Amino acid sequence: MRFLPLCFLFLIVGLKGYCDLTPSAALPEPQACYEKLADLVDILQATPFRIDRLQSLKREGRYYVITMSDQYTGENRTPHNEDGELVTYFDTAQAREMYRIVIKDHLLYHADEKTLYDTGNGLDLFVMDGDGNIYASPPQNGFAHSTYLAGAPAAAAGKIKVSKGVLTYVDNNSGHYLPPIEMIYQFLHHLLDLKVDTSKVRIFEKRR
After folding, report:
1. In the chain, fewer beta carbons within 10 Å around the N or the C end?
2. Does this model's pTM top 0.85?
3. SS (H, E, C) the chain
4. 65 with 58: CB under 8 angstroms?
């Protein structure tokens, strides 16, 4: 059994939810899983642990952001992997617009605001910028977390699972940004502010 940080254990005590450390089918093995998200995130918002970690970062727009790892600088011009593949960068808002997630009626939609976002059986890449704009797509050749913001700082990055517009899973698994788990709480608070249905979300932390 894995052990959670002591501050998390104290926060979880008394909540209606529980921490589930059991591997879930079709999802990566969790290092931390929190249920009853709305209750837990509201408490974490006020904890020194979360605030201290975020305040070590710079703020850009509404949220704290983290810069991309230096090793990926220039990846859109010079191959950074064994396949010799360049990473696609969307340098303009227009170029990334089709990948933007829109919040409507408490659910996640594609940018056309007509089609509910759905990842099927897989996990999609996602990032959020400092203003709260969220971009996502299935993994594909030439795409990385840095693609959507053209390598600019991100307020959250990882993978998500969405079923008919309902977010069911989120993690901080991004090799480009290496975001701390607090940035996922920041992402989820943004969704809660927009009245998104978060009742089914599970958080998986990739620890480094």
Report:
1. N
2. no
3. CCCCCHHHHHHHCCCCCCECCCCCCCCCCCCCCECCHHHHHHHHCCCHHHHHHHHCCEEECCEEEECCCHHHCCCCCCCCCCCCCCCCCCCCHHHHHHHEEEEECCEEECCCCCCECCCCCCCEEEEECCCCCEEEECCCCCCCCCCCCCCCCECEEEEEEEECCEEEEEECCCCCCCCCHHHHHHHHHHHHHCCCCCCCCEEECCCC
4. yes
